[in-house]
Please model this.
Amino acid sequence: MFEPIKVSLESLNLVTLAPMLIAIAGGLVILVLDLINSKLHKSLYVMLTILLLVVDFGATIGLNVNERGFFDVMLIDGISIISQLLIIVASILFTPLALTSKRFHEYSYPEFFALFLFMVAGFQFMVASDNLILIFVGLETASLSLYTLIALHNRSNSYEAAVKYFTMGALAAGFFAMGAAVVYALTGSIELYQVAQVLSARLGETGIMAAIFGSSVLLMVTLAFKLSLFPFHTWAPDVYEGASAPLAGYMAIVPKIAAFVVAIRIFGMYLDLGIEWVRVMILILAIVTMTLANVMALVQEDVKRMLAYSSISHAGFIMAALALDTTEGTTSIFLYYALFMFTNLGAFAMLWISRHKVRRFDARYDHPFSKFAGLVQIMPMGAVIMALFMLSLAGVPPFSVFWGKIYVMQAAVNAGYVWLAIVMGLNAAIAAYYYLKLVVYMFLKDPVKDVDTVYYNLSKPLMVVIGFAAVTTIAAIFYVQPLVSYLYYMISASGY
Amino acid sequence: MDNILSVLIFFPAIAGLLGFVVDKKSARAYGITVAAIEFLLSLWLWFSFDTGNAGMQFVEMIPLIPDFGVNYYLGVDGISLFIILMTTLMTLIGMVSMSIEKDVKNMIITLLFLEMTMVGVFVALDAIVFYLFWELSLVPMLYIVGAWGGPLRVYAAIKFFLYTFMGSLVMLVGMLFVAYVYHSLTGVWSFAITDWYALVLPVNYQLWLFAAFFLGFAIKVPMFPFHTWLPYAHGQAPTIGSVILAAVLLKMGTYGFVRFSLPMFPDASVMMITPIAVLSIIMIIYTAMVAYAQKDMKQVIAYSSVSHMGIIMIGIFAMNSEGIGGSVFQMLSHGIVSGALFMLVGIIYDRRHTKLMSEFGGLAAVMPKYAVIFGIMLMASVGLPLTIGFVGEFLVLLGFYEISPVMTILAGTSIILGAVYMLSVFKKSFFGPVTKEENKNLKDLTAKETWSLVPLVAIVIWLGVYPKPVLDPINKSVNAMLVFMEEKAITAEAKDIIKVPQSATTVGEVK
Amino acid sequence: MEGLVYIALFAPFASSLFAALFGMSERKIFVGVVASVLLAISFVASAMLAFYVYGTGHAVHVTMMDWINAGDLRIPFGFVVDQVSVTMMTVVTLVSTIVHIYSIGYMDHDKSFNRFFSYLSAFVFSMMVLVMSDNFAGLFIGWEGVGVCSWLLVGFWYHKPDVSREENPSISPSWAANEAFIMNRIADLGMLIGLFILYWNVGSLQYDEVFAAVPFLDGTVLNAAALALFIGAMGKSAQFPLHTWLTDAMEGPTPVSALIHAATMVTAGVFLVIRANPLFSLTPEVSYFIAALGTFVAFFAASMALVNRDLKRIIAFSTLSQLGYMFAAAGLGAYWIALFHLAAHAFFKALLFLGAGNVMHAMHDELDIFKMGGLKKVMKWTYLYMGIASLALAGIPFFAGFFSKDAIIETAWNEGTIVLWAILVVTAGMTAFYSFRQVFLTFEGDERYKQYGIHPHEMYRYVLIAMSPLAVLAVVAGFGMEGFEHFVTKLLPDYHMSEHTHHIAWILGLVVLVFAVGGIALAYKKYYHGLKRDEKLENSWYYKLLANQYYIPVLYEEFISKPYAMISDAMWNKVDMKIVDATVDGIAKFLYKTGDETRKMQTGNLSNYLNWMAVGAVLFLVVAAISAAAIG
Amino acid sequence: MIGLSHYLIVSAILFSIGLMGVLRRRNLLMLFFATEVMLNAVNIAFAAISHYYNDLTGQMFAFFIIAIAASEVAVGLGILIVLYKKHGSLDLDDLATMRG
Model:
């Protein structure tokens, strides 16, 4: 009757799982360490985390392209590798930000680092599979860790942020699950490659479109929520504001990379099937998002909120590349994030070093523009670097984000969407205003108070991180070429 | 030295970086020295420039992003050579004459970076590198206007930045599209302008691309109706900012038309002659009138800049060697003359802290040297023969006459209207009795001011009397461009209108 | 000979630079002396060239260097000394030399003495470039150069404030200077267009090439070119309607008026027409227009001179009138006669102005002839000079003006343009009248100046001596007419009266003479014995019309200057600020406003956020449905 | 005979009820329950479809969803508790300090 289940280790191809396992194991090790000695300093955890992430990085980069493993649920194709690498690099950059000169409560908990590593593993799972279950599990693992991390910041705002994010995330999870159910109902499978096969065979059937409608809309809602696309972006400004600055910067990148990979897998499949209205949907979503987020960012009084809207707008910008469904378009998504990552983390890190325990400038905001007024007089180097990040975000060449922008626009032009490129260009011009606003405050205004504490939170590790971000922002022109060719190779190898 | 262009670009930048270390009190001397060395380097460029060669010289090419076709590709020809010289000269003179007291060191460093971007724009032969420097030049200017400007400085600076930025992003899309077309035709990615020149585009593509590039360049020029950022920028900028803005930054726009629009889209350019000429004429007449209505001396010169840029524009679209060569020459002339005029206004502003003409009157008696130099620059500005201003204006109008006599007459009103507003400035400020008590004891030019203005006066007269050393290389490159445009043009109309001078076809000095 | 050309040309330039060296220092007599000597050198060189050209009949042609080379355009600094230009050179340098010497005396109290010489010599240099150039572009250099020098010199006393038109019709020196410059610029545009027409049809701007090519050009092209060039000439020579600047230019120091606004610069227009005679002789319509306009201006200007009270303005009007004569001659094809009148006029008009300068010097810058009278007692020599000059101007036999003006009037008859002839004859009578009205009111009759407490004195002796060559020439120049004709018609087309005209020449001459003598007699009767003012006449509308220059300056002010200023203001405040700029700012504001509105969806309330998600999902469905329906 | 479509309809209705709950409820706790309802609606669907296809994947998915729902509650409630400690209220309308 029952065949004994034979599982050979070879066929499991556990190597594909290794990166996530390293992260998870690392998290557990940290917890165990805490059990053994609860008096350990946070710097130990930070270094441990970095080390683990480096090992993780090594394990990921060593993976062979286009392999499957662990009952074929793991899919190690090009985009899964590069997205994991990006996630890990961003995480490595993020971790040292814990080593501030002022003591922030959350970092003294080892749980913070354990959760962080679990979250990384979650994102890695999310990108390294085309199985909806695993994607869902990865998504939720990561999200739940993330909610907790936000709440750990231990301020009234961060609880509010966590609750908002959590509730909306839960709703989104419901949508995702329902979407998966519809897909399952349609095709009898939740493996995307099988789904694609079944769908392409059944595409001509009457009534199938309605079901595809259902599934794609439901899945799209979830991903749009994760990617903070309009009108599902509402959580983003509040959560960014409530979360600690590094985490906000991190949230603007890593979850979005992971979500983009899922979006590429799912909607790339729909687009490949020739379902054109998905493309229209994505384009509208992208344009509305980048434009409205831009105009909302114009009127912000708080730098962090402004950056939140700006990262929404950037997400919209990149979303447009998804609609192109070309290798270049997909490459541009990763290139953009790879370049955006450093600048954005740098910018949030700059906010982080100016973080005060009490709000000294404004009753409502932590980082009002006026806080940065005349920064060049107080902290010239900091002002210059921050301005650099702002200009980079605005897309001024030769700083890093410019190359991402130009690549996205080139991809749009190549795919025949010249108008889209123009819309992107105009949006970049609008966006320049609010980035400039900060530059203007820093360079052209006088300080509001004799505030000697703007760099209150500065420490050597932070300087290193910011310096690294600054260097990568400036020197982008020199590494764009290898980056592009690596990304392009990986992506075309995995067939996108 | 084959890589002199790189040296020209990066010398000021590196000097700017090192400048952070220099002590505040020595910053000025440091800046002037660096700018002087840079100027000498550019002179060296001129001397080692082969005037017999119409093509690109001192070409440097280093792949930057080969997959994407982006190369660090530089070169200089007769058209860009002198604009580079003017850039380095005006930076040097601007620094020498600078009267800023506040944050001199920052200003010097900013200027050095600005110089890098300006030189970069004019030597770049790769569209992306060009765009890079083009955009980057906004940043130091933003800072100069915003940090040292007048009461509305932030508004003016942001307006300047965003307006130009917006236009150039559309231009960027145009560039990307050209690259795409190039790729689809040849299978190779390239942003090299020289490669793009070889591209024969269908007319409707040309028109769209022309429009995209037009937006970028026209805002920079600034063409009517995109000119309104300019009066604010000039009105608020410190003297040095206005000098550089008028002398060099505006030239980027017209240079762009010569470097990109004409040779890349000859047919579209020919089709667009009339619309552009109409805009330019509106620009010439309208802004001349607006200039006349101004009460602020600096605003007059700001608007007069717009008006003169109209002349340059119309010359570019004359599609013959006289007109285009004249335009390029007029760029230099306008750069030097308007730069000098802004410096002059700055000098009186330093003394009286006002630029309103009603505050002056009778200055000629109080400050005779100042009045003389102002007078010379004024005459150059209204295009008096034997000053630099005449040569370009004359050639432009002469060239455009071939396209349309009527429009030439309308554009030619520039010489009348220019005289009207400039003479009215002179009369209001310099003539009449000295009515204001504060003006009675104004100091005439100091040695510093004199020595920064005298070289400009010398150039104004030298190039007015003997423009040949400058005009010949320009002419050679322009002729080569025209030959090439005519070959490339696909419509009969364009072939008809683009006029290659006989001397260029017979002598066969075309590469 | 080339050396002489350069000496003639650059000596004034050297003089100008030398004087400019001391431009800002106090008065130094040697500056004036050096300048005068250099000018004299220039004159000598010109005279030697004249002899050379006269002797050999060859023109001297030198090309100094290239100026502008662009495309097919080649403009050299080339100079040609032929019969026409050498005449002009000699006249210009002679008058200039005298004016320079004169100025040493006249300007001796002015603190800007050195500056004055610098400007004056610069003017001579420009004028020399103008007449000597071998191409139109070079001519244009000089053309603009004299314009600038005129601007500098008219506005020489720039410190004077603006006053109302009633007080001083020219408002102020600086105002007059600007007016002159701008009016000339209007004409210069015409001139430039003329150059462009020639260039694009001929391919060159060299005189010889252009004139060789014009016979093969299309009629309309020629007409257009001729008309455009003539518009240029109208500005420089202050022909109607661009004439108002000339009388206002009298705000400049009197030597300037003598040199620039009588003898040389204003005749540049005539010179241009003479120079370009191959072109103008091919365009009869334009030429006739020139003649008609010239005749009109001759009469028009004379009529205004009849009632004017300003010593210098009267002479200015007479200059204008005589320029009309010259244009009439040139327009009728009698180019050499025009040139001859130009030369003769230069002598006696300069003399007249310098005489007026003496009077001004004596009267402490008082110019109203109603306030003068009886000056002959203290200013014998000046009276003599001005008398001679006025006789010459009036065309009294055997003075210079007689020959030249008579020839012009004769030409008008000869061409069969009887109307022009009649007007010119009447004008001759008017000329005689106003010239002597002025002379008598100034020098004869009661000494009205005494009531103003003025103590006039005669000019310095050396100045008077310096003026003597002009006086001599004003008397004898006419006798050189035949030799002159012989000389210049080697280059210019000869013009002979027809047989018929020749026969009745003495009758025609007599008619003119009757008018001239009649004019003098009338002036004698009315003004010799002192000023008797006729209130009724002075209040009549035609007197007022003339006295106010037909209200043309006011009209220009009301209908051109003021509307221009108004429109300019509107362009700035209304169009530029309210429309163009407001649109740009409007877009920015719109975006900002949109942002403000949109951010309201960010209520902070989680429930709203969740609703937005649901709304988004519904919107997705709608969009998907619509696009699916549209695309399929 | 109760077929697949009945299950699916039930599932859809439940999902809608859950969704309405999420949209309408003002109390955070109720909101959480509503999301649980939604997830369970999906579970019904999965189970039914799984049965229909005779494929175990759906049931597996359902199990995972149950697990995830549980952990969601764990985390969510944790956050709610600290929030309640800080704010003393679980009403959504009190939770709007960050806006704009």
Remarks:
- Confidence is low (pLDDT under 50) at residues 507-511 of chain B.
